[in-house]
Each structure stands twice: as C-alpha cells, then as structure tokens.
Write a structure and sequence with these properties.
single chain; three-stranded antiparallel β-sheet; 274 residues
Amino acid sequence: MRTVLLRLVFIFVSAWGLLYPFLSTPPEHETEITEVDEKPVQPPKVEEMPLHNVKLPDFGEIQDVALKKKAFFDFIKPHVIAENKKILEERATLEIALMMVQFDEPLTKAQKKKIAKIFEKYKLVADSNFSQERLQAALKRVDVIPRELALMQAANESAWGTSRFARIGLNFFGQWCYKKGCGMVPQHRDDEAAHEVAAFKSVQEAVGSYFRNINTNRAYRELRELRAQMRAEKRTIDATELARGLHSYSERGSDYIDELSDMIRHNQVYFDEK
C-alpha cells in the first residue's frame, strides 16, 4: 500500500512541475515593457558626382598652409595667364584698328570681321562703322585683370579650392546663373530665389567666364574706369587699387575689398609667373 501511495505522490509532483509555468503568474520584471530611446536614423550622405571630368587636386587633404597655397596657385595660375594673354592679343587688334582710323586708313574686311567677333564677345554693338569713339570704348572692356586679383578672388570664393561649387562644378569665382538647370542649386537658397551657381566643364572655361563677367557686367564699370585711368596715365595696373571697383561682387562690400587687399599683400611670394 505504501508503495502505491509513494508512486501516486511521485506522479502528482511530476505533473505539477510540468504544469506550473503555465498556471503561475510570471514575475513582474519579466512582463514589464521597457521603453528604449530611439535616436532618429540619419540618412546616409549622398556623394555628389562632379559635373565635369577634370582631375582636381584634393586641396582639403593638404594640411600645410604654404603647400596648400602653392598647390592651389600652381593649378589656377596657368589658366589666368593664358586668359590675359588672349585678351592682350584681342586688345592689340583693337589698338591697331584705332591707330588706322585715327590716320584715316581704311580697315580691311578681315580686320572688320575680327573686330566684330571681339565686339560680340564683350557685349558691344557691332556693325561696319568702327569709329574712333567705339574702338576707344571697346578698349575699356578688352583689358587684362592682374593675376594677383584673379587668384585672390579664386582663393577667397572657393575656400582655396575646397568648396562644394569648386569641387562639383569647377566654379572657383562664385559666379551665378539664372536659367533653370544651368548649374548647382545652393543648399540654403531662399524659396523665392531662382539663381543657381554656374557649373563649368573645364577650368579654362571657368576662368574665361570670370574675366568676361568682370569686363562686361555693368556692376564692375567702376573697375574698368579705374583700369582705363591707369592706362591713360601709363601706370602699371595695380591689383589692390583695381579691387576698389568690386563693391558689387559680394554682399560684404567694403569688407570684401579689404579682405582681398590683405590677401594680395600677404601672398605676394606666390604671384611670380614660374
């Protein structure tokens, strides 16, 4: 009888052990739901593809300031020199024509055709009547920009070649355009604004566009007048003095001009032609 009872007790205990997890209430800490602070997931940064095929130096990786400046100037300077050389050739064409007109010598068809192209490039009205007055007016536009000024504006506007616009669109001079799709949309552009930052396919194209902008835009008429005065006085075209005509280039106005002047003064060692 005792054996039977022990066996029944054993069966009961075993059954209770199997059923207990389902019949009992789980401990409170096992049923509690803990809130987890979830940080917003940041979308992965999308690397903008360049709008050109130019192999640019990675100026941002150069830690030594002097080396970075030299690398930047060595990259931009040949294009500035080439553009000024081209302008001097165009200027010589106009000066020869002016001298001939002053001595009542007729211009050839080839000369007139060449002059007409120059007038068109510099946004001047072109016809067959290239008078002394019109040629003199053209010479105010068809003139060089000192490389010191061009290089310092490029460095200033592009943060020494590291800006988004310089890397993606070869825009080293902060130039705008106003046709949809003509360039890059500024990230913090006002909703009502329609401008874009121009994009270029080559560095020479970018430099040439900057030169034409300075030499044709009415916003920089004062600069051209200052340059013409230096020419008339047979003085060297001084970059710092010429910078005074760039009030409209930046919203910073006089502060921008002062900064350019300081940059020109502190970087003279880089301005040689070598």
